[in-house]
Recover the amino acids of this structure.
């Protein structure tokens, strides 16, 4: 291990779905001491690069060899196994994980099931979208629909839709108009140029009325919807509109029809002008899991290989299966800390194998836990930004003697495939 | 049987047009993954007496991998549910994988189904450079086929700037750099300039370009200039396949004029015009459509520098997926179906609409007829490739049906009677086209021709040194049946289909170019990235 300071440039951060790839990471004595340009969320995600290196079998230290043997036996014997793609793993690991679910004839799910309404809306209607860099180039009107990216997507405005200069926005922020739509407590950015308030129970109706107005259909005069309808004129006369909403669950559950109503409005705006809907997604390469599952199985999440081929059960994801007693063994790949509470609670009741960053610290007590490095910090590969742009990972602590998730999952896959 | 290192296919009826072999009974010898002239007497033999032996199929234009294809897959949950693909029972090699089918199958299913048709090489026709890494990952998950992709150029801001500044040499070097950094095989142009205008937005109604000399931003930048610049770049970079062009005005009545103008703009230069059927309509905007196939194919017949693939429309479900964003918006607006649009920063677009071509729909029937006319009026099969622009005009699983339409006039005429003929008045097909493709010609338009047009000397033939990609069909008067289920398929020397069953699924190889260019262009591109791009120059592309 070198005592010298080294820096690694153009590192991709997976702290949120922005996947900023301009981070310079400073490493001293095997520790990560600085993540330059990272936001607070990113700095916390990188941490100091220290991860535990335990292998635990039924709570006791064991060898990797034994752990893989136990994991293979546990999973191969399961009648209704579940594979779960948690955060902080690369697409390469996700690809092997889907192969394992296929082999086991098990179910497989990912963090996407926490943002299912957006995925389902995109399946029903499609999307009117753009990559984040295209919003940067084109958007002259940015409408934040019930979200201030500052908290969960801190550099979204600086790097993409608002502050950065673009082809049609040579002045950056000064070239764009920003509107905050406050949906109850879900408020848009404080420094917006204009604000519109909509009661939460009128949100979907407001989106529907706006769409009708865009399409030139008569809209009733319902007082709570008026401010939203007034926004339509501004949207239809702007050269390119970015409509930004949060796809991840918020403090209060959103109306399940909201994502579809947002999509429909964005699509309709492409009659009179151009519009792209940007649905904000969280970090840890969760968007990569959607893509990998889709290209390998045809479905983006909540897939079941139980019949020997993939079937789609979008309303029976991991949490529902666990709660319904439909799982007798689970393999969690990725960081347990990223699991939704509903899944973590369910895992406590079944025999599990956990492979990933800080797996040994999982509070649902895996039968087998193998700690690995973090994708993007200790190991390379590919991760997807929230807009499905694939980015390479540049691990600053590569070769620092941290167990690789990719190698571990591949070894498990090979054992399971060999046991035909 | 396991795959032996050596294999002699004995006494098959061989169609190997690249080597002048047209239905000759002879042996084909394979050793270490290649075709060889001879084998020792004791080498393992496979008796294919009475069967038809051809090189493995080569698909010059299909959409099988990458961000746009996976956006399409996301839309098609119902299709996938209706067409499950259980893991095949393989004899050895990589583990089998389950998947799903429909018009846009999952990756493993795509590989299995192509090989099941006897196709062993497939080119993905449109990849945005920004998402090249994803396309490679998906092709890595598509077994059995050797594959490569065409990288999208011609609406990218950096290129348009070079054209505006008349920096032709820099445009060429940029194309060379981009091909290398994305590990692509050829340059693809989609609706030159039109996608850039679509993304520019505006309430002024401008959503596309319609003519070759319309300004795209700068008056110095026109579709014609884009075509000339990139055709020149492909030539200067000595690429094995010339520019692969999806013309302006796809799907518009009267677009045959645009297509002919595009061909004339590049007269004397090698160029491949793709899914020509979608660009061969007569009539004019606002008036009824009619076939423009005759004029277009006549030009192709007279110009040996031009090659095409047809992009045949087949009746049934399809999924339209293209970088041509404005076209998909029109289709969405007129069909009311699901619609995906993704504007891709500084580069290109992506539009998707699931669709269905119905025999009783006048326009679909016209499209079907135009494609057949192009095939049947073509004089040189070496320059007219069989394609459906999978999954746009139909899926690759419909190739056998298409082959039957080309080989069997009686069947074709019978089908013609069943379609809506409202727009077919005056068309050559309705007047009666007697031509029937021979097996030798089918071997040209499905393997020998595309391999030659792609500049793949090891593909599409059965001469010594060629890759041992071989397909063996049991003859059947019903040509659709014959071509749908080959008896044997050999891929790179591995027996992958035996007695009609998929038995092995080895990984395919990646086909990519790495042209020489002046590396000085990189610092200029990097400056542009630093000013505008949302990803670091260093993270761009798909280098391992």
């Amino acid at each position: 291990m070198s005592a010298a300071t080294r820096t690694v440039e153009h590192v991709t951060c997976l702290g949120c779905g922005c996947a900023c790839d301009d981070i310079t990471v400073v490493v001293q004595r095997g520790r990560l001491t600085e993540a330059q340009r990272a936001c607070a969320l990113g700095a916390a995600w990188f941490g100091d690069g220290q991860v535990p290196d335990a292998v635990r079998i039924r709570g006791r230290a064991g060898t990797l060899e034994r752990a893989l043997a136990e994991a293979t036996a546990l999973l191969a014997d399961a009648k209704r196994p579940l594979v779960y793609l948690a955060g902080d793993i690369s697409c390469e690991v996700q690809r092997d994980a889907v192969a394992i679910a296929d082999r086991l004839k098990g179910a497989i799910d990912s963090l996407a099931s926490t943002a299912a309404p957006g995925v389902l809306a995109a399946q029903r209607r499609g999307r009117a979208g753009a990559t984040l860099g295209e919003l940067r180039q084109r958007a002259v009107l940015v409408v934040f629909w019930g979200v201030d990216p500052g908290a969960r997507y801190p550099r979204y405005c600086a790097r993409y839709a608002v502050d950065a200069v673009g082809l049609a926005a040579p002045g950056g922020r000064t070239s764009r108009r920003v509107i905050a739509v406050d949906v109850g407590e879900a408020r848009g950015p404080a420094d917006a140029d204009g604000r519109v308030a909509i009661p939460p129970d009128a949100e979907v109706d407001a989106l529907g009325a706006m769409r009708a107005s865009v399409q030139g259909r008569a809209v009733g005069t319902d007082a709570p919807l008026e401010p939203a309808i007034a926004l339509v004129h501004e949207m239809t006369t702007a050269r390119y509109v970015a409509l930004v909403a949060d796809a991840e669950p918020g403090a209060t559950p959103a109306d399940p029809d909201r994502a579809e109503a947002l999509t429909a409005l964005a699509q309709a705006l492409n009659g009179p002008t151009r519009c792209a809907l940007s649905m904000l997604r969280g970090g840890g390469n969760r968007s990569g899991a959607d893509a990998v599952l889709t290209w390998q199985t045809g479905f983006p999440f909540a897939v079941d290989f139980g019949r020997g081929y993939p079937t789609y059960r979008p309303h029976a994801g991991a949490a529902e299966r666990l709660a319904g007693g439909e799982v007798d063994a689970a393999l969690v790949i990725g960081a347990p800390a990223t699991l939704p509470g509903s899944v973590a609670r369910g895992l406590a009741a079944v025999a599990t194998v956990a492979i990933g960053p800080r797996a040994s610290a999982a509070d649902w007590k895996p039968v087998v836990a193998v700690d690995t490095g973090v994708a993007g910090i200790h190991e390379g590969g590919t991760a997807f930004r929230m807009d499905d742009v694939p980015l390479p990972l540049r691990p600053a602590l590569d070769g620092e003697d941290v167990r690789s998730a990719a190698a571990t999952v591949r070894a498990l896959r090979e054992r399971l495939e060999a046991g035909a | 049987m396991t795959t032996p290192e050596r294999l002699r296919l004995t006494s098959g009826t061989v169609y190997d047009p690249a080597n002048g072999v047209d239905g000759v009974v002879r042996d084909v010898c394979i050793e270490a993954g290649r075709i060889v002239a001879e084998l020792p007497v004791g080498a393992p033999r496979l008796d294919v007496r009475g069967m038809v032996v051809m090189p493995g199929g080569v698909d010059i234009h299909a959409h099988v991998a990458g961000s746009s294809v996976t956006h399409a897959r996301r839309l098609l949950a119902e299709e996938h549910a209706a067409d499950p693909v259980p893991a095949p029972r393989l004899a050895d090699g990589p583990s089998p994988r389950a998947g799903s089918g429909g018009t846009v199958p999952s990756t493993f299913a795509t590989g299995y189904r192509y090989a099941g048709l006897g196709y062993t090489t497939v080119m993905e026709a449109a990849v945005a450079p920004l998402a090249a890494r994803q396309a490679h990952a998906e092709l890595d998950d598509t077994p059995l086929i050797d594959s490569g992709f065409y990288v999208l150029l011609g609406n990218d801001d950096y290129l348009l700037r070079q054209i505006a500044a008349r920096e032709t040499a820099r445009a060429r070097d940029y194309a060379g750099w981009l091909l290398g950094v994305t590990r692509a095989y050829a340059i693809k142009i989609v609706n030159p300039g039109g996608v850039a205008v679509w993304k520019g937005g505006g309430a002024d109604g401008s959503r596309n370009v319609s003519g070759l000399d319309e300004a795209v931003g700068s008056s110095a930048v026109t579709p014609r200039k884009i075509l000339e610049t990139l055709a020149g770049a492909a030539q200067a970079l000595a690429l094995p396949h010339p520019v692969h062009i999806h013309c302006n005005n796809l799907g518009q009545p009267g677009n045959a004029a645009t297509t002919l103008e595009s061909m004339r703009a590049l007269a004397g230069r090698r160029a491949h015009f793709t899914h020509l059927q979608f660009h061969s309509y007569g009539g004019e905007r606002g008036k009824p459509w009619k076939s423009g196939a005759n004029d277009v194919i006549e030009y192709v017949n007279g110009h040996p520098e031009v090659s095409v693939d047809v992009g045949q429309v087949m009746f049934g479900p399809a999924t339209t997926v293209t970088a041509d964003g404005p076209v998909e918006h029109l289709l969405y607006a007129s069909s009311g179906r699901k619609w995906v649009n993704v504007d891709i920063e500084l580069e290109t677009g992506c539009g998707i609409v699931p669709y269905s071509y119905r025999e009783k729909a006048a326009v679909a029937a016209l499209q079907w007829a135009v494609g057949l006319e192009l095939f049947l009026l073509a004089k040189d099969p070496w320059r007219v490739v069989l394609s459906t622009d999978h999954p746009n005009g139909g899926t690759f699983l419909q190739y056998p049906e298409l082959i039957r339409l080309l080989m069997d006039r009686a069947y074709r005429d019978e089908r013609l009677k069943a379609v809506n003929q409202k727009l077919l008045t005056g068309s050559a097909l309705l007047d009666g086209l007697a031509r029937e493709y021979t097996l030798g010609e089918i071997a040209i338009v499905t393997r020998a021709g595309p391999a030659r047009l792609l500049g793949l000397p090891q593909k599409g033939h059965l001469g010594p040194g060629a890759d041992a990609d071989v397909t063996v069909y049991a003859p059947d008067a019903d040509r659709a049946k014959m071509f749908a289920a080959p008896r044997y398929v050999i891929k790179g020397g591995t027996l992958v289909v035996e007695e009609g069953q998929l038995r092995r699924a080895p990984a395919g190889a990646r086909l990519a170019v790495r042209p020489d260019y002046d590396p000085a262009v990189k610092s200029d591109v990097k400056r542009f990235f630093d000013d505008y791009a949302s990803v670091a120059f260093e993270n761009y592309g798909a280098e391992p």
The mean pLDDT of chain B is 96. The first strand of chain B starts at residue 6 and ends at 16.
